[in-house]
Amino acid sequence: MNKNFIIFGILILILSSFASAFSLSDPRLKLWFDMEEGITYVVHCWKKSERDASQAWTAVKTWAKNVPSAWPADGLQHEKGGGEVLKNQYKTAGFDMVETHATHVEGGVSVEAGLWNMLQEMRDGQFKVFSTCREFFEEKLLYHRDEHGKIVKLKDDVLSAVRYAHMMKRYAIPYGSVKKLRQNAGFGNAPALHEFDPYAGDDED
Questions:
Q1: What is the rounded distance in angstroms from the CA atom of residue 38 to the CA atom of residue 55?
Q2: Residue among 99, 96, 136 nearest 7 (CA)
Q3: What distance in Å separates the CA atoms of residue 111 and residue 156, rounded to the nearest whole number?
Q4: Who contacts 121 (Cβ-Cβ below 8 Å, separation ≥6)?
Q5: What is the model's pLDDT at position 187?
Q6: How many structural domains compose the chain?
């Protein structure tokens, strides 16, 4: 593999109305950034509800170990009842947490700015998703705005996770610096890629 890739794992904590660590809708995904071609790849995706940090780590550690994990400002909240800060729970479990919560390079956490930056890559064919990332495509089909033009925040956890990773790709590390990368993560056994078309009503076959 000769391309100059950097890879990035993303951890996103979406708190439910119960404000409990055990009530998180808990996606994990990993992005690759091809620095030569300027292409973003979504290569791994995992999403389960009612999983704590240790359970999440057990599920994804084969491809998340030693990969930096971005996280939203929600990660600074405590468990219900004044428990441990959520970010620290995931660090203790094994995730390599980035030092600060996700922000744009110029600062701020604007959702619209993040979506716009991703949309430009999508329009230019610079955003590709591995076909195994079923949760991404499911959420993509539901993603929309209401009659007032506001984004409907419903079942969008994976898409939000992608946006956080995209915002924080300045913290990504060179592909070769991750110890003992799994051989089956290379291009030889890679699943099919899909270009994400923001205007298409259905996914391409």
A1: 34
A2: 96
A3: 12
A4: 38, 39, 40, 127
A5: 33
A6: 1
In a domain, 41, yes or no: yes
- Please write the tens of the pLDDT for every residue from 58-89: 998 888 888 888 888 887 776 654 557 888 88
Residue 125 has pLDDT above 60, yes or no: yes
- Residue 25, domain extent: 5-195
163: domain CATH number is 3.30.420.280
How many whole angstroms separate alpha carbon 132 and alpha carbon 12?
Answer: 19
Confidence band of 200 (pLDDT split at 50, 70, 90): very low
How far is the C-alpha of 52 from the C-alpha of 54, rounded, in Å? 6
Distance of CA 155 to the CA centre of its chain: 14
Q: Examine the pLDDT at 108 and tell me if it is beyond 90.
A: yes
Whether residue 189 is contained in a domain is answered as yes
136, 191 contact by CB (below 8 A): no
In sequence order, the 6+-apart residues with CB closer than 8 A to the CB of 147 are none
Tell me the C-alpha distance between 59 and 147, whole Å: 39
- Report the pLDDT averaged over residues 124-128: 93
- The angle formed by the CA atoms of residues 184, 186 and 190, to the nearest 5 degrees, is 80
Which of 9-18, 29-38, 78-87 shows the lowest per-residue confidence on average (mean pLDDT)? 9-18
Question: Domain for residue 204, yes or no?
Answer: no
Q: Is residue 182 part of a domain?
A: yes
* Contact in structure between 21 and 52 (CB atoms under 8 Å): yes
